[in-house]
Amino acid sequence: QVQLVESGGGLVQTGDSLRLACAASGGTFDKYSVGWFRQTPGNAREFVAAINWGGVVTHYADSVKGRFTISRDNTKKTAYLDMSSLKPEDTAVYYCAADSLGTITVQRSTNAREYDYWGQGTQVTVSS
After folding, report:
1. What is the helix (H) or strand (E) element at residue 108, kind and residue range?
2. Is the model's pLDDT at 101 over the cut of 90?
3. Of the candidates 68, 72, 78, 66, which has an alpha carbon nearest to the alpha carbon of residue 48?
4. How far is CA 42 from CA 13, 45, 69, 117, 126, in A?
5. CA atoms within 13 A on the CB side of 88
6. Closest CA to 30 of 96, 74, 80
7. What are 20-79's pLDDT values in tens digits?
8. What is the DSSP secondary-structure string of 1-34?
């Protein structure tokens, strides 16, 4: 059983940067791949980025490619999402999730149903 807690959300302005963290406890964090998703009211969770167990393989949604960077520090049991050049359309609740399959594929990593554990989410609001 893995528990995930996100932090780092907040209110920023267009063009600003923000770092989200996803701290894990329980389980064996370094065996899991990690994904970041986001959700706005009335919409399904949208894939943002994913990283494999070793932190070598990553995948990004086209909407964030070049602006967001996913990383992880297995010694700290923490994954990160560095967001830069933020836009109002990035406003959402951001969730991290862990998939017991440590490797990632484009198809699997983008499917929220493939993830076994979820955090409670952290709000990111980008003002124009």
Report:
1. helix 106-109
2. no
3. 68
4. 24, 10, 26, 22, 18
5. 2
6. 74
7. 999 999 889 999 999 999 999 999 999 999 999 999 999 999 999 999 999 999 999 999
8. --EEEEE--EEEETT--EEEEEEEESS-GGGSEE
